Amino acid sequence: MTNKIIKVGTFFSGIGSPEKALEKLKSEGYIDDYNLEFFSEIDKDAIKSYCAIHNINQELNVGSIVNIKGKDLPYCDLWIGGFPCQDISCAGKMKGFDITSSTRSSLGWEMIRLLGEVETKPKYVIFENVENITSKKFKETLNLFKKDLIDLGYTLYDKVLNAVDYEIPQTRKRYFLVAILDNNHIFKFPEPINNDLKFKDFMDSQVDEKYYLTNDEIKKIDNKMFFKKKNTDDIRYEVDLIKYKNGGVCGTDNYSKYHQSARIFSELGYAPTLTANNTADNTKVVVKG
Ligand SMILES: C[S@@+](CC[C@H](N)C(=O)[O-])C[C@H]1O[C@@H](n2cnc3c(N)ncnc32)[C@H](O)[C@@H]1O
After folding, report:
1. Which of 1, 45, 124, 162 has a CB 3.0–4.6 Å from the CB of 78, allowing a cystine?
2. How many domains does the chain have?
3. Mind spelling out the 3-state secondary structure of 82-114?
């Protein structure tokens, strides 16, 4: 896809991170240019953010995918859709994706419907979802999804990639399915890039006090640190200093309701995949000092 303006349409657009990747590809000279022909999003805050981030008009939003008719979509070379994953993710209840399940993730099938409806299909389609979509539970449905794309004329390439292999110090595994209309175009997923970047390399030097979890009393016994409320025996955070030095999970938040958010991470390792809920009961990281 070189020497021209790539026409792009995205579904489940969120804040448009794949669009940011296109911007990066342009700035690094891999593509000449791209133009956002439409996006599809229903969350009003996401729509506002999307338009601000990509400097485009809200009128380009074609709204909920279920109401879109293929004949109303302008031609695009590339479609991208990271369909809702809450019902597929291990963090969710895993009831989704099946075409008859009526759950949010079954919305992915709407892109297949639209590919069948448009007069000229996009040459390239990229789907993205959580790694769990490749698990035994969803495998059969994923195969049906892929078969529909093959029947529409696409050649498929798919793989689970981990952000940590691509210069982001975060363990975030995502399934990518790339569908290409041209059989002669062989696609290869990028090879992992080895680097030594850790969570601490991405932290701001100035961080507002409100982001720090401070307790009244800190006690150090051998290689462990305990953070407790003054005049109580109530220990909230426990940190293992050897594990801190090794990176990864190095402690526990004893007040946390969930196993995932109870884990405390070391700044000297990789960050975990962040959960969708943004409450005080979220991922914690130990920083020096
Ligand atoms: C997993 S997020 C995708 C995030 C996106 N890839 C990004 O870079 O921000 C799924 C998005 O689908 C949106 N969504 C849910 N139902 C939708 C629908 N019926 N039509 C269009 N978008 C929908 C949600 O609001 C959410 O922003």
Report:
1. 124
2. 2
3. CCCCCCCCCCCCCCCCCCCCCCHHHHHHHHHHH
Cα 81 to ligand 1 centre (Å): 8
Nearest Cα residue to 76 out of 127, 35, 28, 33: 35
Q: Which of 180, 213, 240 is the last residue of a domain?
A: 180
Distance between CA atoms of 269 and 224, rounded to whole angstroms? 18
* Catalytic member of 76, 85, 90, 250: 85
Pocket test for ligand 1, best of 11, 12, 40, 132 (most atoms within 8 A of CB): 12
Q: Residues 127-165: pLDDT tens digits? A: 999 999 999 988 889 999 999 999 999 999 999 999 999
Q: Is 90 a catalytic residue?
A: no
Ligand 1 interacting residues, C-beta cut-off 6 A = 12, 14-17, 40-43, 46, 64-66, 82, 84-85, 107
The letter for the amino acid at 216 is D
- Counting ligand 1 atoms within 8 A of each CB, the residue from 20, 36, 41 with the most, and so the one to mutate, is 41
> Residue 202: CB partners within 8 Å, gap ≥ 6?
169
pLDDT in tens, 232-262: 778 889 999 999 999 989 999 888 888 878 8
Specify the DSSP element, H or E, that contains 57.
none
Q: What is the C-alpha separation between 184 and 32, in angstroms, rounded?
A: 22
CATH of the domain at 156: 3.40.50.150
